[in-house]
Design goal:
single chain; 2 helices; mainly beta
Length: 343
């Protein structure tokens, strides 16, 4: 499926440019959204959300860092799961009022950051210079976590996917996704050092801003690594959040984007550690996910309720390219997710 480019996020008449696109918006004119101009200050504060997540998969580990900004709070989290040790190191932060949280509204050039005297989680977009960067410094004794990783998009580019999704009755959400970006740097976690080499470690990006539904339930799958012939692969699949319109189900094969149709998640929500089946309706994706670790949380606050389970594990199966070429994957690292949010 060939995708068009996106000149501007919001059209001249103030409506979002709904659809799926190759590349980023030429203009991120969020303030031109006509419905937002009709919101009062309180309505907009409650409805507008932004988040930026970068995931890292390397030999024996999966890591992730995120910065989230709503109109009324900021949040951030960072984690590392070690497959050999079967251990999860995780930190999360709430920032009521958002005074310690920065979120620049540009998926190509800007900074998203949570910073206090006790923690720093910084996600840099520097695409004019050819890279992104993850900088984390959490000196908490016994749970130290430092990340300094550069996503090397200048060396082995990955085609960006953009979706402007319709959220009935009067909202939209914009999201940019990439997976399979070579990454390089170092991670130090609780006394152990992980060498992040661009030859073996890959990164994914989820940059999202808009006005999502107040109540949402979704499944999500992200994986990245190398097929059995050593070719770079990555993917992003979801169900439940962007089911109206083209959706965000995408595979990257050696950096080339392949847009897919709907994807099914077959799993036992009461036994989240049992295998998951992730398959596309057109037959281009047929994966079996074997969970080995789990990250989960239940939050119940004044404006926010969130319940999620996010297992870490390995994917095996097949992916098919636009030309019909089959890519077999075996024990490729990734995550799956079940998430219900009221926010």
């Amino acid at each position: 499926m060939s995708l068009p480019s996106l000149a501007s996020l919001i059209l001249n008449e103030g409506t979002p440019a709904y659809g799926a696109y190759l590349g980023y918006p030429g203009v991120m004119n969020v303030e031109d959204f006509v419905q937002a101009r009709q919101y009062g200050a309180l309505q907009r504060m409650l409805k507008e959300k932004r988040w930026y997540f970068i995931g890292l998969c390397g030999p024996g580990f999966v890591a992730g860092a995120a910065v989230v900004r709503t109109g009324y709070t900021g949040t951030s989290f960072v984690y590392l799961y070690d497959f050999e040790q079967g251990q999860l190191l995780e930190h999360s932060y709430m920032d009521p009022g958002g005074r310690h949280t920065r979120f620049d509204l540009d998926p190509q050039n800007g900074t998203c950051m949570y910073e206090t005297g006790k923690a720093r989680v910084e996600l840099q977009n520097r695409l004019p210079d050819g890279y992104r960067r993850v900088l984390v410094n959490i000196p908490k004794r016994g749970k130290e976590l430092d990340i300094e990783v550069r996503l090397r998009e200048e060396d082995q580019p990955v085609e960006p996917f953009s979706l402007v999704a319709e959220i009935p009755p009067d909202r939209y959400n914009y999201t940019a996704k990439l997976a399979g970006i070579p990454a390089e740097g170092v991670i130090r976690a609780a006394g152990k050092e992980y060498n992040v080499s661009h030859q073996t470690a890959l990164a994914s990006v989820d940059w999202t801003a808009g006005f999502p539904a107040r109540h949402t339930f979704w499944n999500w799958s992200m994986g990245q690594g190398f097929d059995t012939e050593g070719r770079r692969v990555g993917w992003n699949f979801s169900k439940g959040v962007y089911d109206i319109g083209p959706g965000e189900n995408v595979v990257w094969l050696e950096g080339k984007l392949v847009k897919l149709g709907k994807v099914r998640f077959d799993y036992n929500p009461k036994q989240i550690h049992e295998p998951w089946k992730v398959r596309s309706e057109d037959g281009e994706v047929d994966l079996l996910f074997h969970p080995t670790g789990l990250r989960q949380d239940r939050t119940n606050l004044l404006f926010i309720k969130s319940m999620f389970k996010q297992p870490f594990g390995t994917y095996s199966g097949t992916l098919r390219g636009a030309d019909g070429t089959e890519h077999e994957v075996s024990n490729v690292l990734g995550i799956a997710e079940e998430h219900e949010a009221l926010w």
